[in-house]
Amino acid sequence: MKRKPIFFKKLLPLLPFLLLILALVSSVVAFGDVGNQNRYTSGGGGSDFDGDGIGALVGYLIGLFINDPVTGLIVLFILVVFLLIARRKRKKQASDPGYINQQVQNQANNDVIMNYTDVVASQIRETDPDFSAEKFIGWAQEVFLKIQEAWTTRDWKIIRPFESETLFNQHQQQLNEYIRLNKINVIEKVGIKHCSLKSFTVDGDKEVLVVLLNAVMRDYVIDATSRQVLESDPNRDWYMKYELTFNRKTGVKTKAGLSNMSTTNCPNCGAPTEITSSGQCPYCGSVITTGEHDWVLANLVGVNS
After folding, report:
1. pLDDT tens column, 45-93
2. What is the pTM for the complete model shown?
3. d(Cα 197, Cα 135) in Å, to the nearest integer?
4. I want to staple 130 with a disulfide (CB 3.0 to 4.6 A). Which of 34, 254, 268, 279 is the partner?
5. What SS3 class is residue 252?
6. Cα(150)–Cα(162) distance, rounded to whole angstroms?
7. How far is CA 110 from the centre of its chain?
8. How far apart are CA 305 and CA 240, in angstroms?
9. Helix residue spans in the chain (DSSP H)
10. Which of 202, 212, 198 is nearest to 248 (CA)?
11. Is-contact 34 22, C-beta < 8 A?
């Protein structure tokens, strides 16, 4: 029977310590750079190692140490060096906007998205034959872009014509908090990658139409006075997914030449929208933010998948 080298007995007590080092280094590489759900984290990538992989690796090294401690030490040393180099590379990539932006664009361009537009449009046309999915999606995108513009310029009045009373007040309060803190949340370079109809339901006296919209954008916070960047990076992109929920009164029909025509015209009379604080058109007197005449944005939320 082959006898183990004498120094193996001296090395054996160090084995748990050495393997612990490997496990710690592996876990740092695997999980240390993963961003959380906060949109202003560095958003680094994960590792090719997972929990099972680390466990299998540690088990392999234990067996190797028992059978050939010298080789085990060499392999352990090589792995630790490799993992430290990989961690350093990931940290460098996580701080490089160019690398991050390329990853973001790849993610946006390769994202697999289920498109239910045709099915949803058919449902709506059963009671509203003039409804156009193409025109509505174009209008929904215009609404989304107008919201980003208003948020950056801190002028929520331009949003009044197409947000419900509840959503308008909610967004106005959020914006006022930024103003109180003397901050500006800049949203710029918005590129819409996908926009489609997701679902349509009738809920009592209102119809509910949900739109899925994905976009790449720059999103950061600056001091309103000094223009100093306070959060995020003006040079990096974010890939964001949203659900926009639109409501209108049950039974309201699409009006040719008026409905979903523009974010700058009254859906009832077609006049330029200079909407009062109560959501009323000064030309025809209609309150156009209730869904009585056309779709109105009732909710806007970010989604993770």
Report:
1. 444 445 555 566 666 666 666 677 677 677 777 777 777 777 776 766 5
2. 0.65
3. 12
4. 254
5. coil
6. 13
7. 15
8. 10
9. 7-11, 15-31, 51-67, 69-94, 97-110, 117-125, 133-153, 165-180
10. 202
11. no
